[in-house]
Amino acid sequence: MCGDDKRKACNASWDMTTSKVSIPAALSVDANKYDPRDPRVTESVCYTGLAETYLVEKFSRDEAFWSRYNVTPGWTYFGAHDGMFRQIPATYREKCGSYDPHRRPWFVAASSGPKDIVLVLDVSGSMGGYGRFGLMKEAAITVIETLSVADKVAVVIFGTNARVLNGQELLVRATKENKDTLIAAVKKLRLGENTNFHRAFLEAFSLLERTFQVESTTGCHVAVLFMTDGTITTGPGSNEVIQLVEEKREEFLTDFGRTMTIFSFSLGNRADEAVTKTIACSTGGIWIPVGDNDSNLYGNDIISAMSSYYKLFALGMGDGGNDDFVAWVEPHEFFHRKRMGTTVSAPVYDRSVTPHLFLGVVAIDAYMEALERILGEDAMSSNMLQRFVDLSTARCPKIELAECQLDALRFSGSGDRTTCGSCTDGSKAFGDIVPKRCSSNTPSQIWANTDVKGVVAIDAYMEALERILGEDAMSSNMLQRFVDLSTARCPKIELAECQLDALRFSGSGDRTTCGSCTDGSKAFGDVVPKRCSSNTPSQIWANTDVKGKKYFERACCHSDLDEGPKPSEVCKVLDTGAIVGISCATVFVAFCTILVIRRRMKSHVSDQTHVN
Hints:
Layout: E1 14-15, E2 20-22, H1 39-48, H2 52-66, E3 76-80, E4 85-88, E5 90-91, H3 105-112, E6 115-122, H4 132-145, E7 152-158, E8 162-164, E9 172-173, H5 176-187, H6 197-213, E10 221-228, H7 238-256, E11 260-267, H8 274-282, E12 287-290, H9 302-306, H10 310-316, E13 327-328, E14 332-333, E15 340-350, E16 357-367, H11 368-375, H12 382-392, H13 403-414, H14 426-430, H15 459-469, H16 476-486, H17 497-508, H18 520-524, H19 567-576, H20 584-611
């Protein structure tokens, strides 16, 4: 269902009878075949396949419900903890590997809950090397994009000094408008000079304190994402920076009842490790080194590293009475159907084990036009937006993580060097935070299924026939059954001489006719379907001839018959409920064929009546 050439791409369509699976390109072994490099991803593909029958049946039930509001159901999908994505209906996507559920608001919102996020970004001169500055900006933009209306956000930049981006006095609600403003400002960032950690944290903490004082926060988790590629070159030293962090964390907890977690990211092989790691460990956070040529989980992928902070919250939400937590995202335009809607999502855990394991996020789309009819409110009104905010911030999920679980999470990213000593060996605790593999014999190429090469698909049907007939599928008796079935009758072939000459003419012209008709070309029309229109699209897949037109505005063949619906009317019906992606080009073929048959049947009946 994927293809890279837009010129050869067919009209977008979807299939409600099956689901589609995809994985991000970053998780693939091969850039072209997209087979998972981690067998756990393959297992996610396999075990989620067991839910396909339920998904298909549920979509059918949803059609009946949403038809009351004259809309079709939205998509239902599941994003696994390891990046696998399954959705129904199955849809066409031009480029495989381009979709990563981890970088979508519906996934992050459900897996981490409402939160206050402060990004602290190093813009000192050293960030100009190895393309880090551009990558850091991309990573920051990705984090901002994944936030939902339940979150609040701000960005602090630092070099010799520090300042809050856009001059914000407080954290702002992560609406689309506010996110777009921040993203535009991040894109315009320029490099500075020195590196002053102390000023960076002081500015971030002052911003948080002002926001706490006026109670303009989410009231839930507080996360500071600190990113640098260097060491302290100006201002107070390492000990003072660590002391400032520890004091402010204790102060926020005592004065405001807020727990602050710091996630630190060291970029490049020369970046500070001691201070950034200590800061993360002392606040119950995670330190992730992202080297220029690292072999850890993130390698040199700054974007994936920085956007992975949600994993800590996701693990902690498995306990603490969060069973019925759901998240809503701000109304947005759906990619495939180009209509406004919202997404409701919830985290999924395996609660049969302790600690509970985070498996992923399940979500469903809903169209705003339907919600408008139900609630009697404009979809884009401030009241509707406030509904989503209220629904998403109705409660703060309780985060409970044992120290050993934290170290296991740290280990999963970059090995023992990033653990904080909570466990003697992070690798031993790692098995407690990820689902265990069910099998050691997963397919290596899940799309091509070359592991079962040579196994004929019909084998399964033959086995069924064996059980029904009580006979060996490869026996001579079974073969004779097929022979008997295939030769039970001889089809009757009746062709008029003129039809024969017309068929001969169709191959090579008059020179091959046998004279049964005076002109083979005149009889040719009797052996092929007649064209209904001379104005058919020249490029039916791209539909460039009808660009911008609706289905019913496209040229359709017309019938000279009085009875029955006209094709143009059917096109209107297709346009009203176009849930199967059928273009009017398809109507040409179907209706022209039907009309020819009807004409001939009518003619045949007329002839019979005349004879009688």
